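User: what does the whole thing look like in 3D?
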Amino acid sequence: MTIWTDIIILGLVLTNFRLLATSRLGAVIQTTIFQAIALSALILALAGKPLPVRLILLSLITLTVKGVILPWLLKRAMREIDVRRDIMPIVGYSASVLIGIVLLGLSFLIFMPLNEAIKSESVFLLPAALFTILTGLMMIISRKKALTQIVGYLVMENGVYCFGAALAVYEPMLVEMGVLLDVFVAVFVMGITIYQISREFDHIDTDRLSELKD
Amino acid sequence: MNILISILHILLALILSPLLFGVINRTKARFAGRKGQPLLQSYYDLIKLLRKGSVYSTTTTWVFRLGPVAGLGAALLCIMIIPSGGISGLFSFSGDFILMIYLMGVARFLTVTAAMDTGSAFEGMGASRELQFSVIAEIVLLLGMSVLAIGTGETGISRIYADVWGSDVSLLGPVIFIVAFAFMIVLLTENSRIPVDDPNTHLELTMIHEVMVLDHGGIDLAFIEYGASLKLWIFCELMTGIAIPLRTGQPFYDIPINVIGIFIVAVLVGIIESSMARLKLLNVPQLLITALSLTVAALFWLLRGIL
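Assistant: Here's the predicted 3D structure for the full assembly of 521 residues, as structure tokens:
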């Protein structure tokens, strides 16, 4: 069973690299769908043999919210403001992939001493979760378009969710529901805001927002 | 008995390798709705070239003549080291994959010096590009082999490939396809296929590998072409050896399985070439760095699993 968990976690790590490597917004949004699939599969893989209905439900909700609704909202925002690429990011794409390698090594290193303390299914789970959070952070810092930054926020949340997945097998889905709702609202609001920003100012480069004067 | 089987798979490589280009071209032709050139076209080309004489420019020296011979020689040596799936290569010793990678490096170096020796600006340009890309591709190959070596606990390539689908699948299993994917990118780069280089391009300015051998003709060109097909065969072996988890232990099944796998890789290359556009020259290093990051991620993963 643990090899499937490992494969899913590895898939999650690879999606993070794709997020760091690609400049096309369509591909970025598509990758979040893959992450949602990985996360919902991860919960099922972590659960014991008689699958609790609670976890199946949680997995399904994850898939619908993260894999269908949020990407749909983002895709719509992308269409409305007519942005295809995040050109000229603050950190280049090759460079961010290389930074991604460093972040991955760091995540593995940080959890090295906690080997005994972690009683989870796979030693890779928590490092992968941290790496996902760092990837999201990296996207927020290094990209210029507001849409990519929102995806970065979403990815960060995926990482938090991944941390939660280790516990969700035993404990409450209320936390998960809360987090899901948070993100849902956040993306919803941001989607609307972006649309407004781009309608007012003809662009969504966050750099130029600092030039606002009254 | 084992030596005989190793010799058999080397003979297969020597005989069948030009057919790989035929398969790739036939796949591309099918995708384009054409009938395509004969499957054996590369053999006809080789025979035609071997019957011709060579013309050498007066500005060239022995460096220019060394290139094709050394290239073919290095490829032949690599063929003797490379295992075919679980079947050991003719020579196998500890760390032989490093020798193999460096043999390819030597071949590349001598091809480049031969290109520079002509004094042609185009050839210098192609040489510069070839080296720029192979700098990263070589690291990917070395790191990928290291991942396999660490995962299997062996240091000779024949032993590595024999054990790769052995007992400890839980550790190596998840990362092995990442390594295979990275090897695929290296295969496309090293053998100058689309998305890195277009083997059918007609403009010298857009060429990478082809432009380096513009001044070679006759027997020299035949050596280069044959060396290129052997190189493609070697990379296909590297791919299929880890990507096909089927090992019967019976050489008479394993060898056909592996040969079929190699031709599947050739078809895959044809499909990639038909479905992708060539990358912008500036974006090629980014592709290679992605492959590099994949292998490094696999390496970290493996080290974390072991420690």
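In plain terms: The mean pLDDT of chain B is 90. The radius of gyration of chain B is 19 Å.
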